[in-house]
Specification:
The longest helix has 16 residues. The chain has 299 residues and is α/β, with parallel strands linked by helices. Helix 8 runs parallel beside helix 10 and helix 12 crosses helix 13. The chain starts with a helix and ends in a 5-residue tail after the last helix. It is built from 13 helices and eleven strands.
Length: 299
């Protein structure tokens, strides 16, 4: 017996992406998001979509959804779900593991429900993925606006352990007292909601020793970032650690590359490639490397 769209996907659990919309047309319905769309031509297409799409939430298989349907209705469901899959408008999700306990504490799961939903939009096991993010210890190097916004973003999105330069915590760096106070207020507000944030001052000193105990190190903006990153690269990224720089080149903000012990890319390679573009890039590259050589920082 030849396979049909319905039999091919009957055992799957379709979950429609959160950015997918469907709109009535004179001859049916169009499904669309920011990247494109497709049309389903049928006299009752829009009504069919309004009845079916709310059930495509990953909680049941197509076969379970179609209990009691006739062959014609099953064929329509099969065609639509297969079209949603093929265009990336939906994805099949695994059955939930009923024996697995929630990875994220209830208070944090409620407070950061939008972040968990955002992960779920793109990948399975959203709760476990968020729990791994929340438990990741992040060190943010720098005391200027980029470092401050990096810390605020980490706090607001659920990271529970952040190490920062002491000069950022006490306001003696490149941010105002009010800007620093906002960081402390955000952390205090989350603590009141039973979602505590460990905000610690990093010990003084160069190299990876100052970031001991942190899984990810972000070198966050400022003229000293290239020198800091280059020194860390000379030591070598330790096993199990990740280094991420945020820097500027030729008037542009650059984030990355992500560096790990296994990664083939590194900051020095990226800087050399950007500097090889010719024209104004030559001047920018000269400023970058001369600043590193002289220890004066970069533009």
């Amino acid at each position: 017996m030849a396979a049909t769209p319905y039999t091919e996907i009957a055992g799957t659990r379709p979950r429609v992406r959160r950015d997918v919309l469907f709109t009535e047309t004179p001859d049916g319905v169009i499904f669309h998001n920011a990247d494109g769309g497709f049309r389903l031509t049928a006299a009752s297409g829009y009504r069919f979509a309004t009845l079916l799409v709310p059930h495509l939430d990953g909680s049941r298989s197509v076969e379970e959804i179609c209990q009691g349907f006739g062959d014609r209705q099953k064929a329509m469901v099969g065609e639509l779900v297969k079209a949603l899959y093929s265009r990336g408008f939906a994805r099949p999700v695994p059955a939930p593991d009923e024996s697995a306990a929630p990875r994220t504490a209830p208070a944090a799961a409620g407070r950061f429900a939008q972040q968990i939903a955002y992960i779920d939009h793109y990948a399975d096991e959203a709760d476990a993925r968020f729990a791994r993010y929340r438990s990741t210890r992040v060190a943010v190097l720098g005391d200027g606006p980029v470092a401050r916004w990096c810390v605020l973003s980490l706090i607001r999105n659920g990271c529970a352990a952040i190490g920062v330069d002491a000069s950022l915590l006490d306001g003696s760096g490149g941010t105002t007292a009010e800007e620093v106070a906002e960081v402390h207020r955000e952390a205090a507000r989350l603590a009141e909601e039973d979602c505590p944030v460990e905000l610690s001052a990093l010990p003084a000193g160069p190299g990876w020793a100052a970031c001991d105990g942190y899984d990810v190190v972000v070198a966050a903006g400022g003229p000293q970032v290239p020198g800091t990153v280059l020194a860390l690269l000379r030591e070598g990224v330790p096993e199990g650690r990740t280094l991420l720089p945020a820097w500027t080149f030729q008037g542009r903000a650059v984030v990355g590359p992500v560096m790990t012990p296994e990664a083939a890319s590194c900051w020095a390679c990226a800087a050399l490639r950007l500097g090889a573009a010719g024209g104004a890039a030559d001047t920018a590259a000269a400023g970058l490397w001369s600043g590193l050589a002289l220890g004066t920082g970069t533009p």
